[in-house]
Amino acid sequence: MDELNTFSFIFLSALTLSVTVQWWLAQRQINAVKHHTGAVPHAFQAKISLADHQKAAQYTTAKVSLNQKLLLAEAFLLLVWTFGGLLNVIDGFWLQTHGPVLWMGVAVMLSVSLLNSVLELPLNYYRTFNLEARFGFNRMDLKTFVLDIIKSLGLSLALGVPFLALVLWLMQNAGVFWWLWVWLVWMGFSLLMMWAYPVFIAPLFNQFTPLAEGSLKTRIEALLQHNGFSSQGIFVMDGSKRSGHGNAYFTGFGHNKRIVFYDTLLAGLAEAEIEAVLAHEVGHFKRKHNHKMLVFMAVFSLAGLALLAWLMRQPWFYQGLNINTQATYTALLLFMFVLPVFSVFLSPLMALLSRKHEFEADAFAAQQTDAQFLIQALVKMYQENASTLTPDPLYSAFYDSHPSAPVRIEHLTQLNYHTSGK
Fold first, then answer.
1. Angstrom distance (rounded) from CA 152 to CA 164
2. What is the pLDDT of residues 50-63, one digit of tens each?
3. CA–CA dist 240, 237 (Å, integer)
4. What is the distance between the alpha carbons of residues 25 and 70, in angstroms, rounded to a whole number?
5. 62-105 pLDDT tens trace
6. CA-to-CA distance for 389 and 407, rounded, in angstroms?
7. How far apart are CA 329 and CA 24, in angstroms?
8. Residue 245: enclosing H or E segment and its boundaries?
9. Does the annotation mark 362 as catalytic?
10. Whole-angstrom distance, CA of residue 305 vs CA of residue 150
11. What distance in Å separates the CA atoms of residue 362 and residue 367, rounded to the nearest whole number?
12. Of these residues, 281, 358, 384, 392, which one is catalytic?
């Protein structure tokens, strides 16, 4: 390994700080949840049993503890890729083929991605067949697990290889402002995937059945029509094929939008509660949260590509991470390695923005339906998904895209108080 330079120390310091902060926050979460295991919070005592509360505590601490170990493993692997020379080994292997630089770059990046996927397999297997199964959530068999891997790999190759080749070609041939062209391609590809996902990709993994005619569909369609929301249909997904967790979401883009309910969610909620959950999702649409996040992503990605365009011309960027080949593909790989180390400190801002959107969607739902129905639905979902009711405030502020259970229920209770005129 070559001598460390200034960037080496900056990177190692940032990595150390990132791992330390995330480990500390995770430990705070574990301690907070364990500390409150003995009693159900007062606001939930009439709705959630002590046994369910303790199950949620055990499930949360098990997940966070696993993430702590994963955090250390990922940091170690990152050091192996860079200072340990593993990326140089893979790059050297493909350089010996003396093929076109473009396709050597594609081959190196695919090799790194495939090796990372192989290394993640044991973790994914453990998470599915041990952790999730231990708490009664896993419904997936080994055949489905393997088929999902094969399908995901096929999609990655079919979609990823042409896209990656185009990006590397632009980086090599589009001049000094290549990053603007790559940004346009990236945004176009992202929008295309958003449009194509519900119709062409999601059905490869799950079955989507139109919601049956009846009172539930009638009240949902009335809610959508009242708010000017048009979609390509309301569908029920066989989520129980893989997990006991329940959810509902909008998917798609433009006129190709779908409303999707997990079958597990429909089985656990009353019609009025389902309508309240959907009203919350409509709130995201009416408040244009998806558009705002898309603009944020566009700005962030443009800034990131401009930064990459500068970094790839700096020899110290490669030398500081012990990379021998100064090329477009190694610059892109290193940027993908390094960016999470620094961008993790933006997580609190992203989480804060997301929670703001959730509060706004809750407020919209409270105007459309009785907020009490959304409260009841959320409490049932907390119970069925074994979500902790007592998270650590700092951990929640740093990571959580949704308000914590006590904060959210209190907010909705206040909304219900004001809308009911009490």
1. 16
2. 999 999 999 999 99
3. 8
4. 14
5. 999 999 999 999 999 999 999 999 999 999 999 999 889 999 99
6. 10
7. 35
8. none
9. yes
10. 31
11. 9
12. 281
Number of neighbours of residue 286 by Cβ within 10 angstroms: 17
Backbone dihedral region of 106: left (phi > 0), alpha (psi from -120 to 50 degrees) or beta?
A: alpha
Contacts for 276 with CB less than 8 Å, ≥ 6 apart: 365, 369, 370, 371, 373, 374, 376, 377
Are 229 and 285 in contact, with CB atoms under 8 Å apart?
Answer: yes
> Which pair of tokens denotes residue 265?
């969610």
The pLDDT assigned to 228 comes to: 81
Q: Which two tokens stand for residue 165?
A: 């080749």
DSSP character at residue 37: T
- Asked about 52 being catalytic, the answer comes back as no
Tell me which residue has tokens 């399908």. 151
Say if strands 248-251 and 234-237 run parallel, antiparallel, or are unpaired.
unpaired
Q: What's the pLDDT score for residue 252? A: 72
Domain layout of the chain by residue ranges: 6-203+291-345
Choice among 91, 275, 362, 392 that is catalytic: 362
| CA 102/CA 178 separation, integer angstroms | 15
Quickly count helices (H) and strands (E) in the chain: 18, 4
Question: In the numeric block, which tokens belong to residue 154?
Answer: 């096929």
- Determine the Cα angle at 223 with ends 217 and 226, to 5°: 135
183-212 in b/e burial notation, b at 16+ Cβ within 10 A?
A: beebeeeeeeebbebbeeebeebeebeebe
Write out the H or E segment, with its range, that includes residue 294. Answer: helix 289-311
What's the confidence (pLDDT) of residue 255? 67
pLDDT value, residue 422:
44
**Region for residue 48 given its phi and psi (left: phi exceeds 0; alpha: psi -120 to 50; beta: otherwise):** beta
Q: Residue 198 CA to chain centroid, in angstroms? A: 17
Q: Which two tokens stand for residue 240?
A: 């129980």
Helix, strand, or coil here: 48?
coil
Record the tokens describing residue 252, joined without a space.
């798609």
Whole-model pTM over 0.70: yes
Among residues 27, 23, 25, the alpha carbon closest in space to that of 15 is found at: 23
Is the torsion defined by CA of 363, 33, 345, 83 positive or negative?
negative
Fill in the amino acid letter for 225.
Q
Segments of the chain scoring below 50 in pLDDT: 422
